[in-house]
């Protein structure tokens, strides 16, 4: 029998955290890789035969329009999984995955994952949660695009970011490793100039402050009221 990497499921929760703690030393080179900033993990049309886990860094998932415009679908951080459609039958990648900073990423083939699913009953449910969560995110963004104006889409994204990634400090919320205005624009189908204008307005109103490293929301409930139906 061939040896398989050792993966440990420490916390399978609603956030979808899949934590590989140890791997067989002889397989490290095949299953773990450090990607430089702006290095592609995979591109559209490449074979979809692996699932990836971020142990360090950040990865952007996106696609390109027919005109070559980049469309950002998600920005993932340490502890998150991507490429999960490989396990449910995707043969060729439809998206690209690129590291936003130097990132350490573990990968496992779909065949190895199928073997692990047989041994860990919770793993199948975990993968279903990831797929379901991503579908809900896409539906929410589509509804926002149809029913909300640019300003509301930006504010809604900020609220969602704080809710999912923020750390509460007293009455305030902090999001570290704040993304660029252009990335927010790509995620909300707006322009960088519009994002900058909205952020500056919210800062003037003392609802938040920000720099390249972090976003500080002073009053999350007040920020939510800025979303127009």
Overview of the structural elements:
The relative contact order is 0.13. The protein has a 4-stranded antiparallel β-sheet with strand order 1-8-3-6. It has a 4-stranded antiparallel β-sheet with strand order 2-7-4-5. A 4-stranded antiparallel β-sheet has the order 9-10-12-11. The protein is α+β, with helices and mostly antiparallel strands and 229 residues long. It has 7 helices and 12 strands. The chain is 36% helix and 24% strand.
Summarize the structure.
36% of the residues lie in helices and 24% in strands. With 229 residues, the protein is an alpha+beta fold. A hairpin with a 3-residue loop joins strand 11 and strand 12.
Q: How would you write the strand order of the largest sheet?
A: 1-8-3-6
Order of helices and strands: HEEEEEEEEHHHEEHHEEH
Residue-averaged pLDDT: 83
Beta-strand percentage range: 15-25%
Q: Please give the largest β-sheet.
A: 4 strands, antiparallel
Radius of gyration: 19 Å
> How many individual β-strands?
12
Note the overall shape: globular
Fraction in helix: 25-40%
SS-based structural class? Answer: alpha+beta
The total of helices stands at: 7
| Low-pLDDT stretches | 1-20, 22-27
């Amino acid at each position: 029998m061939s040896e398989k990497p050792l993966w440990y499921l420490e916390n399978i929760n609603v956030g979808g955290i899949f934590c590989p703690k140890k791997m067989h030393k002889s397989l490290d080179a095949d299953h773990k890789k450090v990607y430089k900033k702006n290095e592609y993990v995979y591109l559209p049309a490449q074979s979809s035969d692996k699932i990836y886990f971020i142990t360090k860094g950040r990865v952007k998932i996106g696609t390109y329009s027919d005109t070559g415009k980049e469309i950002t679908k998600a920005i993932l951080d340490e502890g998150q999984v991507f490429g999960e459609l490989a396990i449910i039958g995707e043969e060729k990648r439809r998206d690209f995955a690129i590291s936003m900073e130097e990132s350490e990423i573990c990968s496992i083939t779909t065949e190895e994952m199928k073997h692990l699913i047989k041994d860990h009953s919770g793993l199948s449910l975990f993968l279903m949660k990831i797929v379901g969560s991503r579908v809900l995110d896409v539906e929410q963004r589509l509804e926002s695009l149809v029913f909300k104006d640019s300003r509301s889409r930006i504010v809604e994204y900020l609220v969602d970011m704080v809710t999912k990634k923020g750390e509460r400090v007293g009455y305030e919320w902090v999001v570290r490793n704040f993304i660029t205005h252009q990335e927010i624009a790509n995620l909300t189908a707006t322009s960088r100039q519009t994002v900058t204008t909205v952020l500056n307005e919210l800062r003037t109103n003392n609802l938040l402050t920000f720099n390249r490293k972090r976003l500080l929301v002073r009053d999350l409930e007040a920020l939510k009221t800025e979303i127009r139906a």
